[in-house]
Amino acid sequence: MAKAGSRLQLQENTLHRFNSYLYCYNINLIRDFCKEDVLDSSNKYPELFVKELVGSLSFDFHTNASYYNNQGRTVAISVDATQNVVAFVIQDIVAFYWKKNNPTIFYRRLPQATTELMNYWLVHIALPVFFSYQRTYFFLHAGAVLANEKTIAFMAPCNGGKSTLTDYFLQQGHALVTDDKLGLLPYGNHMLAVPSHPYQRPYRAIETLGKRCTNVAQKPSILQTIFILNPVAPDASICFTPLRGIDKFTQLRYGAEINYEFGITDETQHLSYIGNRVRMAKVDIPWDIQRLPEVYDSILKYTQSETHE
Amino acid sequence: MNKLPYHIPNTILLQKIDGESILLDSNSNQFFALNPIGEQIWELLTQSEEPAAILETLQQLYDAPQEVLKNDISTFLNVLVDRGLLIKES
How many Cα atoms within 13 Å fall on the side-chain side of residue A218? Predict the structure, then answer.
């Protein structure tokens, strides 16, 4: 944990290169701990800096820290409201720090840090948390792919078939929007789905980004429908039930994550905002891998029928 | 003027999705949907109407005997109180 000392050394002069419409994982991410290019860099997008923390930090971590378990590690998050600094610490691996409205994430290595683990925790976990805190995007726990140039998303409880279905769509040539965390931002009467990092973990191996995906959405697209996967008996029919009102809200609530700072009032407003701009449908998924092609076809047909409404 | 013997706790949030009103209790994390009549009563409650005004407004909107409406309003308010969505002043 950080000790008392000098303040964060922030690169204020980089602020002008950052704006709230930066495209989440298409940003030009500049890191000083990784040799491998995990993300495609492009000068078109604003820059986000990830830098090793120089010196120590004046930060009272324990006063208001929240702790939870993620993949066997204790993860802690704490906000120093006076300094507007957020600390996000992954047990034994890495501590990240950032300041509100500043495009630089500072990090400090912890004893078990490796480049691979730091990559994973930065890209898969810390960036969505960072963007949530900066109010750049609202995140849902969902897999998502492109279908006819719009995004369709899949939400389900753990082991509910979300990653299997996402993987099947990818195998059929659809572009990946995200494997796990769907960043959203408002766009008129719609929500835009922001492509995430180009990695996929179909078998949910822990602490790894998974396999590199070559067919990845290149820009945000309108989120057409969120499908709530409902596992049913292997021989059951594939049925769709459009959701409205409180049914939408209930599902969005289960799928909302990383919204630590927002508080329940803001979170509720965000969920209602999304609920009013996105179609949602429960889909009964027969629990038989052999019927995945049938599920795939049914979802595409349903999606197409919606566009003709 | 008789004031309503109820007040809405500041932990209760109202949101609308697809035109449906949803009450969220930020203390208990529970949420409830209101039907259109419940929504109208809730709106009247937020305007701090006197009891007679709620009854009068609903009478103008619904073709039902006064006693029936009175009962329905009372039942609804009791449900809200039971769920902690409304506090009855002692």
Answer: 5
pLDDT confidence of A230, banded at 50, 70, 90? very high
Q: How many CB atoms lie within 10 A of CB A54?
A: 11
Buried b / exposed e across B43-79, counting CB within 10 Å, b at 16+?
ebbeeebebeebbebbeeeeeeeeeebbebbeebbee
pLDDT in tens, A95-144: 999 988 888 899 999 999 998 899 889 888 898 888 888 877 888 999 99
Cβ–Cβ below 8 Å for B15 and A245: no
**H helix or E strand, kind and range, residue B60:** helix B51-61
**B13, B17, B31: residue with CB nearest A275:** B17
Q: Which phi and psi (to 5°) does residue B41 adopt? A: -65, -40
Q: Is the ipTM of this complex over 0.90?
A: no
Residues 28-57 of B with CB under 8 A from A: 29, 31-33
Is B22 close to A276, i.e. CB distance below 8 A? no
Average pLDDT of chain A, as a whole number: 81
Place of tokens 């937020």: B46
β-bridge mates for residue A78, sequence order: A87
| Residues A264, B26 contacting (CB under 8 angstroms) | yes
Give the pLDDT score at A35.
46
Residues A63 and A149: their CA atoms lie apart, in Å, by: 47
A179 contacts: CB under 8 Å, gap ≥ 6:
A143, A163, A166, A196, A199, A200, A201, A210, A213
B17/A250 CB distance under 8 A: no
B13 and chain A in contact, CB less than 8 A: yes
